[in-house]
Design goal:
Elements lengths: L1 H19 L5 H11 L1 H22 L4 E11 L3 E2 L6 E2 L3 E15 L3 H67 L5 H35 L27 H11 L1 H22 L4 E13 L4 E2 L5 E2 L3 H7 L2 E9 L7 H67 L5 H35 L8
Antiparallel strand pairs: 1-4, 2-3, 4-5, 5-8, 6-7
Family: Belongs to the outer membrane factor (OMF) (TC 1.B.17) family.
Keywords: Cell outer membrane, Membrane, Signal, Transmembrane, Transmembrane beta strand, Transport
Subcellular location: Cell outer membrane
């Protein structure tokens, strides 16, 4: 029994440890963010409302049907429902029936409302998909920030490890009287500066992890981390396409553009609905009713009065009515005319916004295209600078080891190579993110592979 309990506790501990040590990939972060974002959930509820609105618009084409009934009893003065004469008797009566009506013509407003409801549901879907696109980009950017900070931290720690070796060796040389104590102080200052870099790097990693977790709406910051992966510059043929080609393709699938275009179509439907109020409205109606009263008396075949049964009265006193009504708008204080004018203004505003959104998209793509080229050149320059700094550092180290360079000059050489390596990391991830933005505009899903 003790063995089973111990085994069970070990298995539970393993599950807990695995849960705490989960490392999130970029794809997992993006998927989780899209599936659990509160704003997305709100937009999804809005979409459900729009689908209900479409059902309402469809229902406007159908006849309505209403049933009614009433039961009453009166004592004292009342009107006999059969003779319509005053009476002081107690009587019990039941009335019932149903009615229906349908709109035959209303200036095509119901047709336009139905088409508008369908368009509105489509527009809400575009808005929802555009929000998901923005979240994917934001998560990718935050994820790359964590990667960049982690890689920088690894570099800081590696540099500190080298400095520790130099510090140990310099102590030995100072203690043996080969090197002056100033060299040791200079190396110690360099080590202290690198320790500060490590502390700052750890802080940046933590902050960037928290920022990413917040985008994912995860509150367990301590146990949240991303996969420890090393990413190199990904291959891409995106620059084989001109910015104009990328823009033309983006117009065909970008959800923000589709949403803006659907707003123009919605404004057109609103104008048609407003114009429909100028026309007459024609509707038809049909009513059926019947009643029962215990005060009812009718003559039989022998001309003797009797009270018919409940069922017989329902058949005897039932009746129908039907008809049509026509409402013609003549004057309504210019409200119809003004509504048409407002709808025209709204349509023009929607068209202008659509053109502005296309212009903004073209500007963003042009900027992203330039950024990819610029940041790649910055990365190449940083790599070349880092290589030159490493060569200079190696040469300086050789001179420092044989006593031909003082500790201050050696520390400067080391500081320059540290900064150069940090620039390589920064410019690499800056370039990767800009590249992913441009690819995203071209319809390529976000991936670091």
């Amino acid at each position: 029994m003790k063995y089973r309990i111990t085994l069970f506790m070990i298995i539970c501990a393993m599950f807990i440890t695995n849960a705490q040590m989960k490392k999130w990939t970029l794809q997992e972060c993006v998927t989780y963010a899209v599936d659990n974002n509160l704003t997305i959930e709100q937009f999804e509820l809005d979409l459900e409302n729009d689908k209900i609105d479409k059902s309402d618009a469809l229902g406007n084409f159908l006849p309505n049907l209403n049933a009614s009934t009433s039961i009453s009893s009166s004592t004292g003065f009342s009107i006999n429902p059969t003779t319509n004469q005053p009476t002081n008797e107690t009587n019990f009566s039941v009335n019932g029936g149903f009615s229906t009506s349908v709109t035959i013509f209303d200036g095509m407003r119901n047709v336009h409302r139905f088409n508008r409801a369908k368009l509105n549901a489509i527009a809400s879907q575009y808005r929802l998909d555009d929000l998901k696109d923005d979240i994917r980009l934001n998560v990718a950017n935050a994820y790359l920030r964590v990667l960049s900070n982690k890689e920088s931290l690894k570099t800081f720690r590696a540099q500190y490890a080298v400095t520790e070796q130099d510090l140990k060796r310099t102590k030995e040389l100072v203690e043996s009287g080969v090197s002056p104590r100033g060299d040791l102080l200079e190396i110690e200052a360099t080590a202290a500066n690198q320790e500060q870099q490590i502390v700052n790097g750890e802080s940046l990693v933590l902050i960037s992890r928290i920022n990413l977790a917040q985008l994912l709406q995860i509150t367990d910051y301590e146990n949240f981390d991303i996969a420890d992966e090393q990413f190199d510059i990904p291959p891409s043929d995106i620059l084989k396409n001109s910015a104009k080609v990328i823009f033309d393709k983006a117009l065909t699938f970008r959800n923000d553009i589709k949403f803006s275009q659907s707003n123009v179509e919605l404004a057109e439907k609103d104008l048609e609905i407003a114009k429909g109020a100028r026309y007459p409205t024609l509707s038809a109606n049909f009513n059926y009713g019947t009643r029962y009263s215990d005060a009812t008396s009718i003559p039989d075949a022998n001309n003797v009065l009797y009270t018919p049964s409940f069922t017989d009265q329902l058949w005897i006193f039932d009746g129908v009515s039907y008809g049509a009504s026509l409402s013609v708008p003549i004057f309504n204080g210019w409200s119809t005319r003004n509504n048409v004018k407002r709808s025209k203004i709204s349509l023009e505003k929607a068209k202008l916004q659509f053109e502005q959104d296309k212009l903004d998209l073209e500007t963003n793509i042009q900027q992203a295209y330039v950024d990819v080229t610029t940041f790649f050149k910055a990365y190449e320059a940083a790599v070349k600078t880092a290589e030159a700094r490493r060569l200079a550092y190696n040469y300086a180290k050789e001179r420092f080891d044989v006593g031909l360079m003082n500790a201050f000059d050696f520390s400067q050489a080391q500081s320059r190579v540290d900064n150069a390596e940090a620039d390589v990391i920064r410019t690499k991830y800056d370039y990767i993110f800009r590249l992913k933005i441009l690819e995203f505009y071209f319809g390529i899903p976000i991936s670091l592979n």
